Amino acid sequence: MKQKKYTLPESEIPTQWYNIQADMKVKPQPMLNPETKKPVTVEELSQIFSVECSRQELNTTDAWIDIPEVVREYYSYYRPSPLVRAYGLEKALDTPAHIYFKNESVSPIGSHKLNSALPQAYYCKKEGATNVTTETGAGQWGAALSYASRLFGLECAVYQVKISYQQKPYRRNIMQVFGAQVTPSPSMSTRAGKDILTAFPNHQGSLGTAISEAVELARMTPGCKYALGSTMSHVSLHQTIIGLEAEKQMALADDYPDVVIACFGGGSNFSGIAFPFMRHTMLEGRRTRYVAAEPSACPKLTKGKFTYDFGDEAGYTPLIPMYSLGHDFKPANIHAGGLRYHGAGAIVSQLMKDGIMEAADVPQLETFEAGLLFAKSEGIIPAPESCHAIAVAIREANRCKESGQAETILFNLSGHGLVDMAAYDQYLSGNLINFE
Ligand SMILES: *Cc1c(COP(=O)(O)O)cnc(C)c1O
After folding, report:
1. pLDDT band at 137 (very low <50, low <70, confident <90, very high)
2. Is the same domain home to 345 and 204?
3. From CA 322, how far away is CA 310, in angstroms rounded?
4. What is the dihedral of CA 242, 282, 25, 300, to 10 degrees?
5. Is cis: bond before 184, omega within 30 of 0?
6. How far apart are CA 336 and CA 13, in angstroms?
């Protein structure tokens, strides 16, 4: 029998995350304080984030950062996640390519987001915080932080993008099961929310707006820290656990990726699977392509500009050197809520600028076609976000079929779509808008 899954024992859960900043020849440009226009400091960042995450954010020298033992312990509830050879999909596509996926949907909340929620909640608690707050789009990050907060005994308040709050009631319920307080954003509970609702009474919400609200709450509330699920460099750092495991698992499969693919919202799951492999490209000249898959409706990497921009709508965050569509960009209501964000993280933006990685954009209809083919051939219903990675993997596999080359394709299955069935319902009933 051919081997389908490559699994690692719990003892092989990595003990350190990989900090790619240390190995980059051209470092990301610094984030700037919007008032002074000077690089932000740990002291400034730690006014809203935990001190440890603020340090990790600005660490450009240490390539390896220790994972706290208690975080590893909670990682063991679902990690190491399996690496799977997609024989079913290969057969359906009749491609000579070897397709592998790293299955992050096995986490208790169904996506990769828990990989960073656990350390972020842990550091907040360790530093004496009582509360955490955040924003969430589709609800994946909010669910992850709600659960991690429960584990470490923190109160959690989540601002959920209004359109998702309405379209995805079950994700809201998941957060509530773990005891979080969930508010649709924009809300009247913050200055930022009030301003936006006054200007646009029918505002459907966006991640940028919800971030503004959460940051404001963290600033105004003693003992309350803010945690972010994507974009920031410390989040990418935590997510490298995905690629570090995948590297060992590819070795078990006696294979190595020619192309690594992940969907792209702010860049955390992409960074997570790609950076450990990119290390070999940067240090040893290993030839691998890295492709970020983004929605045509929110194409920051393929159509955005490299510039200094805010991470949120109200302009509360530092200025981030990023590929951006503009911090007031209002993306169409695609179902991949986790990809409806205007900008890319600073590290990924620099790597993109330097040609170390590439990006592809995919219209919504193609992503669901890909998701259905994957579900039929591999038995897992993917999250609408993950469907973007699958769509690009299928494009690559079809290219291999045309050229007859048996390349090795690795993609990250960032989450399952079992709480996104309303989106599949629209697709199946022929009512899905394409948003080219
Ligand atoms: C949040 C999310 C994404 C996008 O976020 P990144 O930071 O770009 O990884 C992708 N897939 C799923 C399932 C998500 O929940």
Report:
1. confident
2. no
3. 9
4. -60
5. no
6. 30
98 lines ligand 1 (CB under 6 A): no
* pLDDT tens-digit readout, 211-252: 999 999 999 999 999 999 999 999 999 999 999 999 999 999
- pLDDT category, 151, cuts 50, 70, 90? very high
Tell how far the Cα of 402 is from the centroid of ligand 1, in angstroms: 31
**C-beta 116 within 6 A of ligand 1:** no
Number of domains in the chain: 2
* Ligand 1, pocket-test mutation among 103, 238, 269, 270, most atoms within 8 A of CB: 269
Domain endpoint, select from 182, 204, 233: 233
- Ligand 1 pocket residue status of 385, Cβ below 6 Å: yes
- Shared domain for 264 and 338, answered yes or no, is yes
Tell me what percent of the residues of the chain surpass a pLDDT of 70.
Answer: 100
Pocket lining: 134 vs ligand 1, CB cutoff 6 Å: no
174, 199, 233: which is the final residue of a domain?
Answer: 233
Helix (H) or strand (E) holding 122: helix 114-126
Amino acid making up residue 303: K
What pLDDT is attached to residue 138? Answer: 87
Does residue 113 carry a pLDDT above 90? yes
- Residue 387 Cα, ligand 1 centroid: separation in angstroms? 11
Distances (CA, A) of 47 to 129, 219, 221: 12, 7, 11
**pLDDT tens string 298-357:** 999 999 999 999 998 889 899 999 999 999 998 888 999 889 899 999 999 999 999 999
Three-state DSSP class for 287? coil
- Looking up residue 148, the CATH number of its domain turns out to be 3.40.50.1100
Atom of ligand 1 nearest to the CA of 231: 7
For a mutational test of ligand 1's pocket, the pick from 81, 140, 390, i.e. the residue with the most ligand atoms closer than 8 A to its C-beta, is 140
Give the structural domain span for 350. Answer: 5-12+70-110+236-428
What is the 141 CA–ligand 1 centroid distance (Å)?
8
> Closest residue (by CA) to atom 1 of ligand 1?
338
